[in-house]
Amino acid sequence: MNITIFEGFSEILLEVFFALLPLLVFFLVFQFFFLKLEKEKLFNIGKGMILSFFGLAFFLQGVHVGFFPAGGVMGEKLGGLTFTWVLIPIGFVLGFVATFAEPAVRILNEQVEKVSGGYISEKIMLYTLSIGVGVSIALSMLRILVGFSLWYYLIPGYLIAVVLLFLSSSTFTAIAFDSGGVATGPMTVTFILAIAVGVASVTEGRDPLMDGFGMIALVALAPILSVLVLGVLYERKGREESES
Predict the structure, then answer these.
(1) Hey, which of 22, 32, 98, 109 would disulfide with 122, CB 3.0 to 4.6 Å?
(2) What does DSSP assign to residue 7?
(3) Is the separation of the CB atoms in 135 and 92 below 8 Å?
């Protein structure tokens, strides 16, 4: 086993410990004064905290020694291709697959289906968010290749979102803006961002700081638009069903 795999792991363990400590203290205060849960539930919560601690620690260590370096190397290799236009469809596929693997997206979709009583299915939400993020990554690759400003995406995008707010229901509005935060999870930030920075670093005339970053802003915007569009479609479907 390569010893460098665990390089800096002790520092990560310490960081995760201090990150989870306030949550644990907060829970214990509530348990002592208000909750007073049974021992069995406390035992299960304790196991969950331990698993979360080591899960976060191993994930962050994996990001440090695996995801970031792999993403950077992939970005540099992709950016050096002769046919650079292929980065656009590759970006879509990477964004689509990364959203499929995003744990926070799964949790959000499960909650949406549960609270809506199955009216908004988990599968539809998953494909909606995945397509939205895939399009945003593809547009990010196009921006790196062409070199135009991020404002050309953000200003029209949020203007369209404001218009869609009036066309969609309040339920989808709330879900949409939560989806924007959920989609910018660890898979996208740690892997896809590293690829974008790698592509920008080897593309002539591009600055990794100016052109490589900014992708997360698009990833946060794309699910908002895609879910609001889904809400408009649901609104139209509901009107058609009521008229018939």
Answers:
(1) 109
(2) T
(3) yes
CA 243 to mean position of chain CA atoms: 38
pLDDT in tens, 34-85: 888 888 999 999 999 999 999 989 988 888 887 788 888 888 888 888 888 8
The b-or-e profile of 44-72 (16+ CB within 10 A means b, else e) is: eeeeeeeeebeebbebbbebbbebbeebb
Helix (H) or strand (E) holding 228: helix 215-243
Q: Long-range pairs for 84-88 at CB < 8 Å and ≥24 separation?
A: 84/145, 84/203, 85/145, 87/141, 87/144, 87/145, 87/199, 88/138, 88/141, 88/142, 88/145
What's the pLDDT tens digit per position in 122-150? 999 999 999 999 999 999 999 999 988 88
